[in-house]
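pasting for ref
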Amino acid sequence: MVPCIVGSNPTTPAIDQKKRILPNGIAVDQAASLPSPRRGGSQTGSHGRRTRSSNPGRRWGLHLVRRNSIFHFRRRWPEKLRRRGAPEFLSVSLRTHVFSSAVKRSADLLSALEAGERNVPTELPDTTANADRVRATLQEIVRRAVADMIARQERKAPPVTSDADLRRIDAQTDRIRDAQRARDWSVASAFAREIAREHGLNPEAVEAPAVGRQVLSLLRRLNDLCVRIERDFDDPLDAGRDILRDHDISPTREALKPPMPLSGRDRESLSGGAARCGKQDPGRRETCACLLR
């Protein structure tokens, strides 16, 4: 008697039935009814289709992030700007939930940012240098004013034109006050033009509101101090202690001496040092440049 496979035709030999069995023990007819692996199914049926969970912060390219159905532009600032105080990321709402509109706005914003970032590293050193020049200019104004007050007190004979000097100072204070009220910062350049030029500031820089306001306010404080010293004969170093320290000047006679001029050899050494620093150390280069002025 010829053995047969269960469920097969009894008239079919067993050897022909073995050819219809797959290596994994599943018949050909059964394999035809199994789910296709390409459709996400499996032979055992234990794994279902994997669904990707929706993430509200999913990135869409072009630095796009969607939050609460609204697209945002999110981009990391370059490392050079982060070292100078910029935050880690820039995040701006594009105010739209339409993908095509968000792509266009993101592309425009990215182009504007990349164009601006190319100029920022070169402009920052200039901004720092101007701040240092303004600080040095204000410091020199204070040093010269207090030194002149001391020189007036140490004259051999008392000045006979003290009343005229007081009237001149009062008139100058009135002019400064009127300029402050009218926001006329050109008056600052009229008073501090020479000192500013010695420290690398042109008249246009002195007439800028941020600089002109500081110059005029300082001149008023110095005029008030000068009037007090002329009338009460107070010690300028004691009466002007606060204004001196506000500008990093020690209230001593040594600190009020004018800066020593550089010799030709010193200037050549500083010029060579500034050239060697180049772009690798802008802080040292700017220091050499300030000493050369």
